[in-house]
Design goal:
mainly alpha; 76% helix; binds 4-fluoro-L-phenylalanine
Length: 437
């Protein structure tokens, strides 16, 4: 039964949806701290260099594979080559399926903190610890977050993903601009700005380069087939590299904007920044509670965080839904609701690992940490290496020919892209993976 594949409604459809995927928790709660710790401006320059070379190459590789095959990851490799290659697609889909449950748990925390900010209890001492270890309460918010993700994806590529990304992404920009102004106008904010931006090249070591690489891959959403899937909805006449530059560039701009929100506020209140949950859910609410009108800004901050997380979660669920559709002929509605329900259930142990199941560890990690490790340190880089090698050695030179769409000649720089995919990227990623152990 031949169905026509859905495609993006507008020319910018891919860019908006893919930028929504890229801009997420990784930009807001990780990037500012990692940059500040690793040499500030020097790290940012290094990060941008990596994103626009290796990151961009893999992004473009995924986009090309998806557009050429018009299929989700596993089916795409089968259609273009077959043999053992679909395994790379399965690795991507598995990665998506492991990431979404714990990403949704954290998404649920952001919703919980919108509610807590509205109630005025977000900044109470011990509030965050009590919330995540509560048991059913964070699971309830995880359910809400997953339900919102399902509600968008069930409506389809155009009417769900594209439409909501078009509403949420500009909303995110607005929220961020308001918060940047609030943050950098606090007295003492300049210390945070200089921690974030002043370059300190003496802090750049091998470990910094590894940190920049793994941050880059997670941040631009490559390695798990999101861009293969989103790429499969791009029409044949569209040129791909321009869109890739847009998405990668927007993601970098959002990361820098996040740094200008988080760090000035932290330094203005004489705190030392830390990464992740402690910064986002403990330090910032306390800071907001001390500034005039802070409860509103706190609420806006968590609204921003949940919007950013939602557009990323949508893209991860879409990988699973497109896979079920292409490989098992399961219709969107059934696939989305079924996958959403199962992944919600898988997230429950991850959520409980902050409370009742905190003592349950495997290889010395809690269930949440184990899922994170397995997905982001193992599956994601493996998928990325597979995709890069495929474009560099197997799908070449057709990959180049398809870049500009409509059988236009390939750009002159395409051989550089080829060797990035064939050699440079796989070697670098392997080096980071080994370092991760
Ligand atoms: N890029 C998202 C972030 O920075 O939070 C997370 C993410 C989404 C990673 C989709 C991977 C992915 F495929």
């Amino acid at each position: 039964m031949a169905q026509t594949r859905e495609s993006w409604r507008s020319r910018s459809g891919f860019v908006i949806a893919a930028a929504g995927s890229a801009v997420g928790l990784g930009n807001i709660w990780r990037f500012p701290y990692v940059a500040g710790e690793n040499g500030g401006g020097a790290f940012i320059v290094l990060y941008l260099a990596i994103v626009f070379t290796v990151g961009f190459s893999i992004f473009l590789a995924e986009q090309t594979i998806g557009r050429a095959a018009q299929r989700s990851p596993a089916a795409a490799f089968r259609r273009l080559k077959g043999g053992a290659w679909p395994i790379v697609g399965y690795v991507g889909v598995l990665c998506a399926v492991v990431i979404l449950p714990f990403y949704s748990v954290v998404g649920g925390w952001t919703l919980g903190f919108i509610w807590k900010s509205a109630m005025g209890s977000a900044s109470d001492a011990g509030s965050f610890g009590a919330f995540i270890s509560h048991g059913w309460l964070p699971i309830l918010f995880h359910a809400l977050f997953m339900a919102a993700t399902v509600a968008v994806v069930v409506a389809g590529v155009r009417n769900g993903i594209e439409r909501w990304s078009r509403i949420l992404l500009p909303g995110l920009v607005l929220l961020m601009i308001v918060l940047i102004f609030r943050s950098i106008s606090l007295s003492g904010a300049e210390k945070g700005v200089s921690f974030f931006l002043s370059p300190d090249f003496s802090k750049v070591t091998m470990a910094t380069i590894q940190a920049a690489l793994s941050q880059a891959f997670f941040s631009i959403s490559v390695g798990m087939g999101v861009m293969i899937t989103y790429g499969s909805y791009i029409s044949r006449d569209r040129s791909l590299p321009g869109d890739a530059v847009w998405v990668v560039g927007l993601d970098s701009i959002f990361a820098i904007m996040a740094g200008l929100i988080v760090l000035p506020a932290v330094f203005a209140f004489g705190e030392n920044p830390s990464a992740g949950p402690a910064l986002t859910f403990v330090m910032l609410p306390q800071i907001f509670s001390q500034i005039p009108g802070g409860s509103i800004f706190g609420l806006l901050f968590f609204l921003m965080l949940s919007v950013a997380a939602l557009t990323s979660a949508i893209s991860i669920l879409e990988v699973a839904v497109a896979h079920l559709n292409d490989e098992h002929n399961i219709a969107r509605r059934r696939g989305t609701i079924g996958a959403g329900l199962i992944l919600f259930l898988v997230g429950i142990p991850a959520s409980l690992s902050f409370g009742p199941w905190a003592d349950l560890t495997i290889f010395g990690m809690t269930i949440f940490d184990l899922m994170d490790f397995f997905a982001t340190k193992l599956l994601l880089p493996t998928g990325a290496i597979g995709m890069a090698l495929f474009v560099g050695w197997v799908f070449w030179p057709d990959a180049a020919k398809s870049l500009n769409g409509n059988d236009e000649p390939p750009p002159r720089w395409s051989p550089i892209w080829r060797w990035m995919c064939a050699l440079v990227a796989p070697i670098l990623i392997l080096w980071v993976m080994v370092g991760g152990f």
